[in-house]
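Sequence only, no structure available. Ideas?
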Amino acid sequence: MSRLSMTAILRRSLVHRRARSFSALIALTVSAAVATALLTLYADLDSKLHHEFRSFGANIVVTAEDTTRGLAPDAIERVRAAAGPDAQAAEFGYAIATTDRGTPVVVAGTDFAAVRRLNSWWKVDAWPANTETQAALLGQRAAEFVADEHSVQLKFADRAITLRGVGRLHTGGDEDSRIYLPMAAFTTWTGAAPSTIEVQIPGGEAQVEAAITRLREAMPTAKVEPVRKLVEGESRIVDKTHALMYGAVLLIALTVAVSVLATLSASVLERRRDFALMKALGGSQSTLMAMFLLEALVLALGGVVGGFVIGSAAAWTISQLDFHTATLPRLGVVPIVLLVNVLIAAFAALLPVRALRGLEPAALLKGE
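Reply:
I predicted one. Tokens follow.
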């Protein structure tokens, strides 16, 4: 059978059986769209999830062995150098002071700009500027311990200080019971040095462990520990998201394969007389199988084209809604999507076409 005649038969089959061809095309388009969307999102998944986890704050804590003496004066510079340029770090010093109401309260000295970058999840109505040396950020509960938020009077070891409350902080944690002030004012007032440095390392568990090793080398006299719940939780979520995406692609592929198999099986039954006539005229079994397989592959290619467009749009929408960043179409996923669709089409085409092997042209053409 010539290539021209096979093309004509293929065109006639697709045109005259539009309903079944369209049904198979829709199924293969859905398969390609889902695979495209998931693979496009998967390409940026790790970076986007790690970026989201960065908003939860520190995943490493560096603490002085002797909290009364605190860390070395250059500790924050050494930590930032060891952690890397993409890391965030903020130092903290702690003391117990007494408010003008006689209530003990935890005061913490820090760098407000660094804390704002590190703990972007904090709910703060107004951040103090770094130039405000006597500014204070009051925790939601700590604000109830002072008589006047705009003139916060504190006393530590008989040394008094008056701060101007700039904003309130609400986290639902221990931070709500603290009053934060600039590190320079804290050190001058209490005489205490920073005792803790919180560090946020971008990346997964492997990157965090590598950073811990570097920090321990840079800070041999300090305790360097990961925030286990955050690090392990991030790793579990990333792994489960990977598994979910793999499972979704497999489930959709199997569902589409069953749908296309049913459609093509019905097509084989409808065209038994056509195949019998072709076989009676000298068409070989391999030719019939190739023609039927070619029809399925054409539908698979059409599904890839439409599915890539729909899947890329879906990936962009999901990325914007869930991660607030755009995920652009990736041509690199096309070969994988094409392979998936071709395998589905080949599987769905070759199973029903095996029924043609036992086809008896004479008996079928007689109507038996």
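The first helix runs from residue 3 to 16.
Hope that gets you unstuck.
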